[in-house]
Design goal:
Helix 1 (about 5-20) packs across helix 3. The chain is built from four helices and no strands. The longest helix is centred in the middle third of the chain and has 23 residues, at about 30-50. By secondary structure, the protein is mainly α. About 65% of the residues lie in helices and about 0% in strands. The protein has one domain: MazG-like (Helix Hairpins, Orthogonal Bundle). It starts with a helix and ends in a 12-residue tail after the last helix. The model has no long low-confidence stretch (mean pLDDT about 90).
């Protein structure tokens, strides 16, 4: 399965799940708020793992993968609700970054 097919599959899977409920997708503004919430949860986990702030003993362990997955789920729901193809959005962004930043940092030497 190619990367593009994988993103398409994820968008269809999320849509299949959301479409079974009468409420459907939340409004874009609500989803941006949820995206912010999920980003905060990811930031908290990163801080616990790599920062100076240890977890309280009463706090359960959450995997970084779970928090990244939650963030991706909400991002996909937002894209779906706005009828945005995530593969196309990624291609646009990656092309811009590759063009803009190709000489921004020191490239690694080939070690053949």
């Amino acid at each position: 399965m190619s990367e593009k097919e994988s993103l398409i599959h994820m968008q269809k899977r999320v849509d299949s799940f959301i479409s079974q409920f009468e409420e459907g997708y939340f409004s874009p503004l609500t989803m941006v708020a949820r995206l912010t919430e999920e980003m905060g949860e990811l930031a908290r986990e990163i801080n616990h793992h790599y920062g100076e702030k240890p977890k309280k003993q009463s706090e359960g362990e959450k995997a970084l993968e779970e928090e990244l997955g939650d963030l991706l789920f909400v991002l996909i729901t937002l894209a779906n609700s706005l009828d945005i193809d995530m593969s196309e959005a990624f291609d646009l962004s990656m092309s811009k970054i590759e063009r803009r930043d190709q000489n921004r940092w020191t490239k690694k030497e080939n070690k053949s």
